[in-house]
Amino acid sequence: MSKQLKIELPAPHAGQRQVLAEAKRFNVLACGRRWGKTVLGIDRIVKPVLEGLPAAWFSPTYKMLLEAWRALQEALAPVITSRNNAEYRLECRGGGSLTMFSLDGDVSDTVRGRAFKSVVVDEAALVKQLRSVWENAIRATLADHRGDAWFLSTPRGMNDFKAFYDRGQDPEREDWASWQMPTSTNPHIAPEEIEAARIDMTEAAFNQEFLAQFVSWEGAVFRRVMECATAERKDGPEAGHEYVIGADWGRSNDYTVFSVIDVTARAMVDMDRSNRVDYVVQRGRLQALCDRWRPSQIIAESNSIGQPIIEELQRAGLPVKAFTTTNASKAEIIEALALAFEQGSISILPDPVLLGELQAFAAEQLPGGMLRYAAPGGGHDDTVMSLAIAWSVIRADKRRYGLTEYLASETAEIEKERLDATAERLASCRFGVNRIDAGQAPAAGCPECGALCISRVSSGGKRCANCGHQFDEPDMTPTHPQNRTTLAGLR
Question: What are phi and psi of 192, to 5 degrees?
Fold first, then answer.
């Protein structure tokens, strides 16, 4: 009778159980330090090995690989039949096997021809060119067994690991799932220890290492994104409100995105995002948005395939205006949107794809000194561009109406000052009629109203500031003695 062997693994804590329950084929776990990601990875990799299938573990360097190598040998000790320390390979009872690889070199040839049921990429955020490693080396090894993959790491800025995390948040990527698990979700770490770390660390470092947030250490464009993610998706327009739509057309693997903004409330109320659909379908989706929201303007990117679509929409009677994307025009609308986030004058939908693209969006300085705005390599910025194009309408209106309001207020202020000055002069004039000191001859007043506020005009006469009457104009006829002398002098 065969002897039954028992493998004991640590019981998963609540956060790990949630991840296991929600797992899909490709899984991305962004977790805080000491959360237990390696324990979770071992749990996932042992299962196919015990079922007699091949599995693989990838680490950024051999040094990082060693801890997991020791832990896996200990976990699988009862079933190991062969061990190759040079190749980091374990053969187990039932035919299962585990091979471990370092990613500090090119592994595309090393794994070529191999097939795995499950792979774990540990500390994935530290892997250089993770996307290239995945696409050119690892992904094909899962085809035979339709295997699954786990990318485990504490975040390290806006790199390929962040792009993979965003895939898990995208409802269009049905095979992908992702989680953000702060250290506090591990019940084995004391809360006071986490709080002590908060005091000792900078806010950015704590957010990354303990809260598992993707912190942009350089080149970040949009700040306070999460603070502005307070808008709610609406079903239709509100009476008295104006709406605009920004359209960014997808090309190849890009997405077509339509963003609807309530101009009156300065809030995003709807977004439509699609990928790899016919342009006829795209036009239909935009038409449906127009029918629902009745926008005053649709601003659509005209580059590439955009112009023919815009012309068709205009012939259909839609209020479409073209936006030509250049480096300069893109910089202008992106900087305006960034200012809106900074000032808190915009509210956006808490859509995970939109939030991810906004947080990852970066600026790169060109040799000539200008900035180039774009998503990091391999990422998308379609939702960002659609939102920025829509916001450009509000920015233009705000700038135009702001100048009008300013000039109107300045004119009103000048008019008020003029009226106040006139009233003050009139008051002093009326007061002066009765203000005659004893023994002083009364001053000559206006023959019409009697006011004393008299001024000399250029012709030599006098003008009353109270009623405007002019009097005592000099006689300019040649027979007047003064004028005769003047004329003689001219001769």
Answer: -65, -30
Q: For each of the chain's 491 residues, which pLDDT tens digit applies? A: 456 677 888 899 999 999 999 999 999 999 999 999 999 999 999 999 999 999 999 999 988 999 999 999 999 999 999 999 999 999 999 999 999 999 988 787 888 889 999 999 999 999 988 999 999 999 999 999 999 999 999 998 888 999 999 999 999 899 999 999 999 999 999 999 999 998 888 787 898 999 999 887 566 788 888 889 999 999 999 999 999 999 998 876 788 999 999 999 999 999 999 887 777 888 889 999 999 999 999 999 887 677 888 888 888 889 999 998 888 888 889 988 988 998 889 999 999 899 989 988 888 766 766 678 888 776 788 999 999 999 998 876 554 434 344 445 445 555 666 666 666 655 555 444 444 344 444 456 777 777 766 777 666 778 776 677 777 776 555 444 444 444 334 33
**Radius of gyration (Cα) for the chain, nearest Å?**
38
Burial of 223 (C-beta count, 10 Å sphere; 0-12/13-18/19+): middle
Quote the pTM value: 0.61
Q: Are residues 34 and 88 in the same domain?
A: yes
Task: Say which amino acid occupies 273.
Answer: R
Contact 181, 211 (CB under 8 A): no
Strand partners, 267: 262, 347
- Domain of 460 in residue numbering reads as 445-490
Distance CA 330, CA 336 (A): 10
> Does one domain contain both 340 and 464?
no
355 plus 278 within the same structural domain: yes
Taking the C-alpha atoms of residue 414 and residue 321, their distance in angstroms, rounded to an integer, is 39
154 inside domain = yes
Six token digits for residue 287:
């038409």
Q: Which helix (H) or strand (E) holds 221?
A: none
Do the beta carbons of residue 187 and residue 13 sit within 8 Å?
A: yes
Question: Does residue 45 form part of some domain?
Answer: yes
Q: Are residues 166 and 273 in the same domain?
A: no
Q: For the chain, what is the domain count?
A: 3
Phi, psi of 385 (to 5 degrees): -65, -40
> Within this chain, do residues 204 and 262 fall inside the same structural domain, yes or no?
no
CA-closest candidate to residue 94, choices 53, 55, 57: 53
- Residue 443's identity, in one-letter code, is A
Cβ pair 257, 273 in contact under 8 A: yes
For residue 107, the surrounding DSSP H or E stretch is none
Cα separation, 455 vs 304, in Å, equals 71
Token readout for 361 is 């969006």
